[in-house]
Amino acid sequence: MIGLFDSGVGGLSVWREIVKLLPQQATLYLADSVHCPYGPRPAQEIRRFSLGIARFLVECGAGLIVAACNTASAAGLEALRAEMNVPVVGMEPAVKPASERTRTGHIGVLATRGTVNGNLFRHTTARYAAGVSVHVQEGQGLVELVEEGRADTPETEELLRTYLQPMLDAGVDQIALGCTHYAFLVPSIRRIAPATVSVIDPAAAVARRVREVLESEPVETDQARPATYHPAGGWRFFTTGRPERLAGTIGMLSGYTPPVEAVTWDATETRLTQAGLNSYDPAS
Asked: Are residues 262 and 53 in contact, defined by beta-carbon separation less than 8 angstroms?
C-alpha cells in the first residue's frame, strides 16, 4: 500500500500518475489542509508535520511513503528516510531534465519559498545546471488559488503572467514546476507561454520512481484486482481540513467522488487522530 501526503490537494497530481501507472496498488492520501500552504513555514515545523503524517500513514498500513510535496521534501526528506522503516520517495524541481533539454541555455523554475530555500534545490541546481542560467520565481499566492478551486480563472492567469513574463523575456525555453499544486495551473501556463516553451511536471517521473522502488522492495499488493480497479476500499483519503472539499477535487480529477476521513493534530502537532471526528461520504 502506498501512502502519499501533501499540504493540500497538490499531491493529487502525483497520486493521479501513480494510480495510472500502478492501478493494482492500494493508496492512502493525506492532505494537511489545516496547515496549507507549507511554503512560508519554517523548515523545522514542516519536518514535524511530515514525520507525524508519515507515522500515521504507516500505522494505517502504508508500506511506502511518497512526500508528494516539494516543500515537505525540501525540509523533511532526510528526516523521513532516517526515521521511517519503509521506503520514502520525495519531490524535487525538474532542474535536471530542464537543463538537459534547453536550447537557449535559460530555464525557469516556478516554486514555493520553502523549496527554493532548501538544500535539496541548491544541490540539484549545482549538480545539474552548470553552465545553464536558472531563473527562479516564487509563486506566492498560487497554492491558495488552487486550494480554493480557482486554478483556471482569469485572476489566476493574470497572477501567473506576472511571474512567468520575466522568465520568458529572459529567454527560457523550459519551465520546471517546483510545487505539486502547480500541475493544475498548466492550462493557464500554456496560454501564457509560447509553444516553443516546454512545461515540465515531475509527477510522472515520481510515479516511475515509485514503481522502481516497488520492484526492488515489494510492497503488499492484491494481484487479483483488475487493471480497472476503482474501489472506495483501494483509494483511501484523509484530510485535516474540510473533507467535502478534498472529495470534490478528487472527483474532478478521477470522476470518482470518494469518502474522505477527517483527522486532526494533537496539541503538540506531532500525532494525528481520527477520534470523534465526522468524515464525508457522498453515498450517505
From this structure: no
Q: List the CATH code of the domain at 95-201.
A: 3.40.50.1860
Give the separation between CA 175 and CA 157, rounded to whole angstroms. Answer: 16
Sorted by where each begins, the domain ranges of the chain are 2-91+205-273, 95-201
Contact 53, 76 (CB under 8 A): no
> Could you read off the pLDDT tens digit of each residue along the chain, which spans 284 residues?
999 999 999 999 999 999 999 988 999 999 999 999 998 999 999 999 999 999 999 999 999 999 999 999 999 999 999 999 999 999 988 899 999 999 999 999 999 988 888 888 888 899 889 889 999 999 999 999 998 888 889 999 999 999 999 999 999 999 999 999 999 999 999 999 999 999 999 999 999 999 999 998 766 544 433 333 344 458 899 999 989 888 888 887 777 788 899 999 999 999 999 866 778 777 76
Active site residues: 69, 179
Classify 169 as helix, strand or coil.
helix
Q: What is the dihedral of CA 181, 22, 100, 137, to 10 degrees?
A: 10
Taking the C-alpha atoms of residue 163 and residue 145, their distance in angstroms, rounded to an integer, is: 15
* CA 10 – CA 250 distance, rounded (Å): 11
Report domain 2-91+205-273's class. Answer: alpha beta
Q: DSSP character for 181? A: G
CA–CA distance, 114 with 46 (Å, rounded to integer): 9
Taking the C-alpha atoms of residue 186 and residue 176, their distance in angstroms, rounded to an integer, is 11
Within 100-146, strands assigned E span 106-111, 133-138
